[in-house]
Amino acid sequence: MDGLILDGHGWQAALAPQDGGGMTALRFRGQDILVPVPAGERLGGPFGAFWMIPWANRLDGGRLGAHRLPVNRVADGTAIHGLSRDRAWRVEAAGQGEAVLVQSVAAGPYRYEARMRHAATADGFVLDMAVTNAGEAPLPFGAGWHPWFLRPPGTRLSFRATTRFAHDARCLPVEATPCEGLDGGEAAFLGLDTHFAGWDGVARIAWPGLALTIAASGALATNLQVYAPRDRAVLCVEPSSHLPDVPNRPGLAAHGPMRGLGPGENLTGRIILSVECSHLPTGEA
């Protein structure tokens, strides 16, 4: 593992402050949870994990009201995954099992301060997020976490939600339909790049011998994006604060709006990752 290393309570994580503050590896008792970032690669490929701030997923044409954000997914004409992942973070504090990263961003209409705490605790691996509007005018804000989990044969995914979205060829939501969530193996999720609303904040990924629970709270506990491409063995389960492209889809806004923050106001959320391991002696997990 390279970068800023956290180690405690069976967890080992590698953070990359200079590479968008992302995570290049996450393991529990030596077993990979995320797909490790290959040597020499930057985050953004199908590995590691990164934060999506001040919006999650896609904005059609980069449109945010009267503002235009840079279109960085040229093939589908969208601004994707926010601004923070393309900028370095500063290490405010670091110890053996805990680190705090901070970031100041001034880009386009946005002026904001972001703070991220990572901690390996007895209750799980904790991710605490806070984003503050440091500008002089109110703006819509959002956030999300984009992990690339392993997807070995036998992987199962389960979570509860009330709404599932059909999408167009660019994965922009077009229609909401009622659902109960998802519970199953690859037959249930393979090929999805799909958004769910009315999420209860808990998702479970079960691999042979190991199960991961994702428990989100605050702003991150309402919406969930699931991505399981057919051409690579990865699974993205992304807690998000809002629906993709919601500023441009007022008819769907009730299912997950961005949060309007005035100067000095903030958006906060927490994710706790916890693991059960059937192959460990009783009591070690």
Protein model, in words:
The chain has about 280 residues and is mostly beta strands. The protein has one domain (about 5-275): Beta-galactosidase, Chain A, domain 5 (Distorted Sandwich), CATH 2.70.98.10. Helices cover about 0% and strands about 50% of the residues. It is built from 1 helix and 27 strands. The strands form 7 sheets. Strands 10-11-12-13-27-23-22-17-20 form a 9-stranded antiparallel β-sheet. It has a 6-stranded antiparallel β-sheet with strand order 16-25-24-21-18-19, with no helix packed on it. The longest helix is centred in the middle third of the chain and has 4 residues, at about 185-190. The radius of gyration is 18 Å and the shape is globular. The protein starts with a strand and ends in an 8-residue tail after the last strand.
Keywords for this structure?
285 residues; mainly beta; Beta-galactosidase, Chain A, domain 5; 9-stranded antiparallel sheet; 6-stranded antiparallel sheet; 1 helix; 27 strands; 1% helix; globular
